[in-house]
Amino acid sequence: MAKVRILSYPDPKLKRVGKKVTVIDDAIKKIIADMFETDYGTQNCAALAATQLDFDNPPAITVIDLSEKKNEPLCLINPVITHSEGEQFEYEGCMSVYPDHIHERVKRAARVTVKALNEQGVEIEFTAEGYMAKCLQHEIDHLNGLTYLDRLSPLKRERILDKIRRLRKK
């Protein structure tokens, strides 16, 4: 296992779409292990998408562990939101978007149903709400080449981009 570099906004690689996984071979298992190593080795990290990391041709995989003790790993391969309902408008941050400095409220569904493969290649489907629903939508956005900044109004996005420019000068 190895820790992988987390891409920082505005790296154009953050716009990549994760490649659909058709076979869970040793190479995919190593990517998953490296993703968990990176997640657990990064302070205040709840989840990561492969497209946030410096992989060549990143697969459509996200790893999540919202537990306090970091002992409830969840790996989702080719995740898709099949149903969403309700609305929440909560602050989000991102390991790729100056996580110590930038957070903004984002409108998301309050409850989502997700279908994916687990690490063993078994199809799973589950419903989540609240923080987990927000996290799932955030990570699946990454796998589709989006950051939470893409969900903001042009005015809010421009304000954040100004702040990023100031941070990059320091």
CATH architectural designation: Alpha-Beta Complex
Mean pLDDT: 96
CATH topology: Peptide Deformylase
Query: Please, how many domains?
Result: 1
Strand order of the largest sheet: 1-2-3-6-7
Structure annotation, total helices: 3
**N-to-C CA distance:** 33 Å
SSE topology string: HEEEEEEEHH
Largest sheet: 5 strands, antiparallel
Percent helix range: 25-40%
CATH superfamily: Peptide deformylase
Strand segment count: 7
Q: Which consecutive residue ranges, at least 5 long each, have pLDDT under 50?
A: none
Indicate the radius of gyration in whole angstroms: 15 Å
Q: β content, as a range?
A: 25-35%
Name of the level-1 CATH class: Alpha Beta
Shape: globular
Task: Outline the fold blueprint.
Blueprint: H1 26-40, E1 47-49, E2 61-64, E3 74-85, E4 88-92, E5 104-108, E6 111-117, E7 123-129, H2 130-143, H3 154-169
Q: Keywords for this structure?
A:
five-stranded antiparallel β-sheet, globular, alpha+beta, single chain, 3 helices, two-stranded antiparallel ribbon, Peptide Deformylase, 170 residues
What would you say this structure looks like, in words?
With 170 residues, the chain is α+β, with helices and mostly antiparallel strands. It has a single domain, classed as Peptide Deformylase, CATH 3.90.45.10. The protein has three helices and seven strands, in the order H-E-E-E-E-E-E-E-H-H. The strands form two sheets. The protein has a five-stranded antiparallel β-sheet with strand order 1-2-3-6-7. A hairpin with a 5-residue loop joins strand 6 and strand 7. The model has no long low-confidence stretch (mean pLDDT 96).
